Amino acid sequence: MKRYGYICLWFLFFFGYSSAMGAADQWGTGSLMIIVERENSSVVVVDSLKHEILGRISDLGVLHHASISFSQDARYAYIISRDGWLSKLDLLTLERVAKVKVGDSSIGLTVTQDNRYIAVSNYKPAVVKIIDAETFEDVAAIPVEREVNGETVPSRVVGMVDAPGNLLVFSLMDADGIWVVDAGSSDFPVIKKYWDIGKMPYDALLTPDGRYYIAGLYHSRHLAMLDLWELDKTKEIDLNNPNKKTAKMAVRKVPHLGGWSMAGGLFFAPVVAEARLPVYRSGSFELIKSISLAGMPMFAMASPDGRHVWVNFSGQNHRLVQVIDVATLEVVKTFDIGDRVFNMEFSPKGAYVYISSYKDNKVVVIAANKLQIIKKFDVNTPSGIFSTIRAHISGL
Amino acid sequence: MKRYGYICLWFLFFFGYSSAMGAADQWGTGSLMIIVERENSSVVVVDSLKHEILGRISDLGVLHHASISFSQDARYAYIISRDGWLSKLDLLTLERVAKVKVGDSSIGLTVTQDNRYIAVSNYKPAVVKIIDAETFEDVAAIPVEREVNGETVPSRVVGMVDAPGNLLVFSLMDADGIWVVDAGSSDFPVIKKYWDIGKMPYDALLTPDGRYYIAGLYHSRHLAMLDLWELDKTKEIDLNNPNKKTAKMAVRKVPHLGGWSMAGGLFFAPVVAEARLPVYRSGSFELIKSISLAGMPMFAMASPDGRHVWVNFSGQNHRLVQVIDVATLEVVKTFDIGDRVFNMEFSPKGAYVYISSYKDNKVVVIAANKLQIIKKFDVNTPSGIFSTIRAHISGL
């Protein structure tokens, strides 16, 4: 009897304890930061209000260029690895709750507007995979290819975004195309195919209002823009006629269009291989200014209040982050963050900026209003940083 | 022994069961809808992905004109009752975890950009109360008053918003003023006082970029606008020179400025007591069109994709909601929702619209892309609907 009693008490203690711990360990999912540990096949989940690491989720595949999207309730993070593993991470329990192989070489993903599916863009095989967000079943594979001289040419897929109207939009890197899929129809039809939009799209963005899809082109001097309200034809935007052109520098990295910004009616677009940031008027794309910088911009990210644009660099001065005042278009602050600054992300309402220093195994937190570093913490080879505020933004 | 064993098993079953239930009952907090049950002193919490009621939290005071703001992680909803009770609702456990009396007659609230404080605007007493969001301690009371002919005149406070730079901005209804408080300083100093901005501000909004604070004036023909980047002086915006003026109708309700909208570079502003919606160009405030409607607009809310503006009415045709296409500025759909439509709110990325029919004790859910009613559910005297997406938007 005594023995059973003890066991019973032990169980009670154990369950009571877990239960109490459970209560203490609960968190809302609205302001979490998921930081990719690039060489560690893992992510850490951070509370961006307290700047504390809540935990780590491991064994996620090859995370070079890994990308993350969120369910709309911000409960789940979906991460796609470079080697084609799509994982579903529960941000309440910090466990992987599902995984599926979606390709041999994958590059991006998005969650549909209705929150029901995940669309993955592959380099290989040349398909867009549609996965049921709840069951993680493979529900469709859209072949991405073009007929050229009677031959079928498969294409790598880039610039995958979800868009209002429950659409998916993506670009065909090897076929100079932009396609639009209706994710509200059970067979996921490609409802529009735009061809010869320019040479070799390499990335794309959706404007914050969800209306314009803009693709960057590796071998053309313009950008291709599609108005999703019209779904008519793509327009060319020429960003290559700046007043003050500086000498070209060797290309280290193609600027990601995800790091382009709009703020204060202006459009900030890094150009490939130059140590400056051209500023255009939104809409007309008239060049306003070309801001000289410490290096070749990799990302140029507007703060949520549009007050500043934060820039990091590839190649020369990769330790630095420069902050541009949108009102004056001048650099107002230069931070030495650490070896190889990779990514930046804002906390909700822009109070803090998280910046990853890949080689220093460090994430630096800056109070955005005061432009002051307030904390540094250890993260293993940090690269991409993804705030759960993305759960509510079309195109992310 | 046997008996202890049974008890032990029972406990095990009980804890195992609760634990399992706990897991099943978890949810992310990113896409919840909190619906005020106006005459029932309660709110219901709804999963806006499944359109299911998760639970009810009661005993919240007099909820006429009740307002809700959220912690940035969307874990907590802060609700202010008309009779001055501020409650903290845990959206993971659906329990009230704190309450404090902050006034005799309260009207609005906001959470500061740094997520540390709740600022409550009172009618009576004439103070802004600052409450610690974590401890719920009363940390400051800012007297709101003006010296007039040597006498101190207290003022009701309206249009309370949080703004970038960790600021609080609000208007003085009985003193024709706008004040700015630095919520980043421990003594919450009023750093700017603007006087004679126009006669009797009654409500205000912060533009979505967090830059402009615009106050509506009951007894002036203009609006007062403050540029928070400059913090210089207020400007007058005149919205009262429309091309097509219709006959005035009796005022039933003053349009809330929170229901004004910007979309597609346009500004939609209901005017008091007229059955039309004037549309202005953003920035210049030039009148583009005056759209004839079924009644006097109460709220005119742009969908998150800026594609449509949804309008409900006070007085005549209070059962209806009309949808305006922003591209054509024409009414494209009219819904008969139910008796006394009070409020509308979008789910994340705008896939669904929730609309409260106060007198019918019903909330109607519409698929925004297809403009189709997909569900109705029972809610006791529903009025305000607050999505947790507000947790990340300055000014809400």
From TrEMBL, chains A, B:
<protein>
    <submittedName>
        <fullName>Cytochrome d1 biosynthesis protein NirF</fullName>
    </submittedName>
</protein>
<keyword id="KW-0732">Signal</keyword>
<dbReference type="InterPro" id="IPR011048">
    <property type="entry name" value="Haem_d1_sf"/>
</dbReference>
<dbReference type="Pfam" id="PF02239">
    <property type="entry name" value="Cytochrom_D1"/>
</dbReference>
<dbReference type="InterPro" id="IPR051200">
    <property type="entry name" value="Host-pathogen_enzymatic-act"/>
</dbReference>
<feature type="signal peptide">
    <location>
        <begin position="1"/>
        <end position="23"/>
    </location>
</feature>
<dbReference type="InterPro" id="IPR003143">
    <property type="entry name" value="Cyt_cd1_C_sf"/>
</dbReference>
